[in-house]
Amino acid sequence: MTELWTRLQDHRKAQGSARIEDLFDADRATAFRVQADGLTFDYSKTMIDAGARDLLLQLAAPVAARRDAMFAGDRINETEGRAVLHTALRNLQGNVTVDGQDVMPAVRDTHARMSAFAASIRDGSIAGQGGRFTDVVNIGIGGSDLGPAMAVLALAPYHDGPRTHFVSNVDGADIADALKGLDPATTLVIVASKTFTTIETMTNAQTARDWMAKAVADPGAQFVALSSAKAKAGDFGIDEARVFGFEDWVGGRYSVWGPIGLSLMLAVGPQAFDQFLAGAAAMDAHFRDAPPAQNLPVMLALTGIWHHQICGYPTRAVLPYDNRLMRLPAYLQQLEMESNGKRVAMDGSDLSVVSGPVVWGEPGTNGQHAFYQLIHQGTMPVPCEFILAARGHEPDLAHHHILLAANCLAQSEALMRGRSLDEARALMAAKGLEGAELDRQARHRVFPGNRPSTTLLMEQLTPFALGQIVALYEHRVFVEGVILGINSFDQWGVELGKELALKVEPLLKGEDAPGHDPSTEALAALIRQMRG
Ligand code: F6P
C-alpha cells in the first residue's frame, strides 16, 4: 500500500464522528458536483471534504496515461494481449489504429450493414417466411444479453419496431416462456455470442432452430449471428450476409455499442441507436478532455474508492428512480463485478487493498418498500447511488413524476440527516407515551443518518442520455481498475464455471465421472433419484 492510501485512511480516521450535514457551507452543494452535457453528478452528501478530494485526485494521477493508451489502441488488456476499443464503436468518424492497422473502415462497414438490415426488417422489405417480422428473439448471455436487454427496456418510449424478447438462461423455462405464443414464420432469431461457443447460448440457439424448423422450410434464413467467430456462425447454418462481426478488442460486457446492440437497433431504429452512440461518444470526449476534478467518470470512481476501499463499506446500491432502468443494476453487476472483482494486480502480485465492491439495486420507489429498512437502520452503511430524470415521458402523468422525484430527494435527505433520539422521543411523547415505554419505543424510531449517497441527474431518459450513463459507468470501472492496479478487461473467474459445468454434466447423466467431491457426488445421486 502506498503512502497515499495511508494518508487517505488517516484522513478518514481524523474525520471521527463528524457528520456529512456539518460539511455544508454556502458552496458545497454546487462545489461538490460535476456536470457534463446535461448530466449532473452530485456527491455533496458524502464525507468527501476538500482534503479527501485532494488526496483522492492524487490517487487518480496514473489514470490519464492509461486512458490515453486505451483510446490509442494499445494492448492494455495485458493478460489476454488485447487492445480495449469499445469506444471506437461509438466514434464512427474517428481514427483508431491497432498495431498500425486502421480499424475504422471495418467498424463503419459493419455499422452501415447493421443499419441497412435493421431498416429493412423494420420496413418489411426483409420479411420472414410467414410475412413481416413481428418479433425478435435475442439469444445470448452475460454481455451478449444484459446490455441490449437493459437498453431496450430503458428506451421503451422510442420502441417502434418489432417486439423484442431476450433468452439467456440455459434453464429451458427461459426459452419455453419466450417462444410461447410466437409465430416462428414471423420471428427473427438473433444468436448473440462473441465466441459462439458459450454452452447456454448454443443450447438455446439449437432449441430455437428446432422450433423454427417445425414451421418454416428454411430455418437458417430467419437467423442472424452477432459474433467474432464468423466461421462458427457459418457452421451453424447462418448465411454470411446475416453475420455481424466484431473484433477481440471489444469485451463482452462492453459490446452493446456494436453488433450486440442489433436487437436495440431493431426496436428503436438506426437513428435512435445512433443517438445512443452519440451520448456515449460525448461522455468519451468529456472523459478525455475534462480536468480530473471536473471529470464525471473520475469523480464517480473516486467516490466509489472512498466508500469501499477507504470507508470500508462492502457494497453499493444503484437506485434508479426510473422504472425503465429496472435492468441497469443487473447490467452494472456484470460491468463492475466481472471487471474489478479480482484479487491480483496486473503484474500478478496480490492486491494491497480490497478489490471492487458488491453492486446491487432495484428501482425506487419499489426498493423503499423492500430493503430500504436496512439502508436506513441496519448496522452497515450502504452508499446509495440515486439516478433520476427531471422529466418523464408521460406528460399526462407529470404528477407521478413529481412524486417519484420527491421520493428520490427525500431518501437521500433522510439518509444524511437521520432522526435523533430527542426527535424520536418528542414523537413518542406527542403520541402520549411516557417513562420506560417512551424510551423503548423511541429507540426503535431513531435513524442514525450520516449515510452517504450520490445523485446522478439527467433531464430525460433519452437514447443520448442512456448512452452517456452507460459510458460513464464503463469509464468509472476503468478508473477504479487503474487505481487498484487491476486489469478490468479479463474475466478468468468466469471461465472456470464454464469448464466445471461440462465436467459435472456426466455425473447427472449417471455416466462415469471421477474426481468430484463427496458432497457433489451425493447431491448428483439425489437429483438422479428424484428424476427417476
Ligand atoms: O460470463 C462470462 C462471459 O465470458 C462474459 O464476459 C460474456 O459477456 C459472456 O460470457 C458471453 O460470452 P459470449 O458472448 O462469447 O457467448
UniProtKB/TrEMBL annotation:
Pfam families: PGI. GO terms for cellular component: cytosol. It catalyses: alpha-D-glucose 6-phosphate = beta-D-fructose 6-phosphate. It is found in: Cytoplasm. The active site is at residues 338, 369, 498. Its main location: cytoplasm. GO terms for molecular function: carbohydrate derivative binding; glucose-6-phosphate isomerase activity; monosaccharide binding. GO terms for biological process: gluconeogenesis; glucose 6-phosphate metabolic process; glycolytic process. Its EC number is 5.3.1.9. PANTHER family: GLUCOSE-6-PHOSPHATE ISOMERASE. HAMAP family: G6P_isomerase. This is Glucose-6-phosphate isomerase.
